[in-house]
Each structure stands twice: as C-alpha cells, then as structure tokens.
Design a protein that fits this description.
single chain, four-stranded parallel β-sheet, 11 strands, 196 residues, alpha/beta, 27% strand, disordered C terminus
C-alpha cells in the first residue's frame, strides 16, 4: 500500500547492541574470565556465584574469577579489570562475564563506549549475568539514584525510571543500571533464588 511505512522486523540481538556483541562472538564452550566489583558493604561472593551460574547455563568455561574493591575515587587503578582484559588479549579467555555492566566502567576511567570498542576490536565479547527489565528496582550509577524501571528502549539506549517513593521520572542509559537488591542466582531448573 502506498504511504504505509515499512517496519523492519528485528531480532532481539539486532535491537540490543550488547546482545549483538555477545551473540557475534560468544559460543557454547567459550572460555570467559569473570570480573566483579562489589558495592561498598556487600560481599562479592553472591555476584561471583551468579556469574558462575550464568556461565554454566550458557555452556561457557570460567578460566578465572577476578575482582576489584569498590573505588572511593573513580580514577583509582583497577588491577582486577586490567588482568581480565589481559586474559582476553593473551587468549586465555574469549570474553568477559560480569554481574552488571556498570562494574566494567567508571566515571573517571573508561566509559561504556570505550569498553565496547575495546571488546569489538578483539573479536571478543562482554556479557552480564544480570540485565535490566521493566519493573526492576535499580540503582542509576550516573544519577546516583534508586528507582523502578518503567520502560526500556534498547534501540535508543534509554531507560525511564521513577523513584521508588513516586515523584518525577528520569532517563538514563540501560548500561548505567545496577540491581538495587541482592544478587539473584539463576537456577537452571527454572527458578531463581536470592543469594545474599
């Protein structure tokens, strides 16, 4: 029909740049290095457990588990992150698996685009055990606020949030979101359980 717009049907991996990078290079049997940085006052073990579970579900082998302490200053060096990248460069891992994407970026060091470019240049992949979803209570690492995701647009790279107590909405990039609650571990039998 004349005047009817043509809408290209996209697969989820075509709509989501993370999934595009992930699906292009992550195969069953791939080796990954796990990297986490627990928030202040939280144990890294639940995050590592969630990553191990995610790797198992994906059929990936974990070559190492690396971490950094929470940073008081975002310009501080992150030896665990440097070592994770070294695993990819030397071929000891095909990709990097983290719990949540904000763990691999800092405001003072690398931003998310830098990390994605670095990953793509090495035909590697970056995966996260936790992904934001509508209705989730999250912490926005850019605005330093906690809210509920009311909508997500992975194509435009925008998440709409509302404070848990109500009030005004705000927007942020989905990769700036971190779960506000305890780590959730995927149970391959179909359930999820809190591991705090």
């Amino acid at each position: 029909m004349a005047g009817t717009p043509v809408v290209k049907q996209c697969t989820p991996s075509e709509r989501d740049p993370i999934m595009r990078t992930h699906s292009a290079h992550a195969a069953n049997g791939s080796t990954v290095v796990v990297y986490v940085s627990a928030p202040f006052g939280h144990s890294k073990e639940p995050l590592l457990a969630a990553c191990r579970s995610h790797a198992d579900v994906q059929g990936w082998r974990v070559s190492a588990e690396l971490s950094d302490e929470p940073l008081a200053d975002s310009r501080q060096p992150r030896p665990g992150w440097r070592q994770a990248k070294r695993f990819v460069v030397t071929g000891l891992a095909r990709g990097i698996l983290t719990y949540a994407l904000p763990m691999v970026t800092t405001k003072g060091n690398e931003d998310y685009t830098d990390v994605l470019n670095w990953v793509e240049e090495r035909a590697s992949f970056l995966a996260a055990a936790w992904r934001p979803s509508q209705g989730a209570v999250v912490h926005d690492t850019v605005a330093e606020r906690t809210g509920i995701i009311v909508a997500l647009d992975p194509v435009g790279g925008v998440a709409w949030l509302r404070a848990t107590t109500g009030g005004r909405y705000w927007t942020t990039a989905p990769e700036a979101l971190h779960p506000a609650g305890p780590a959730r571990v995927h149970d391959p039998s179909g359930g999820t359980g809190d591991r705090a």
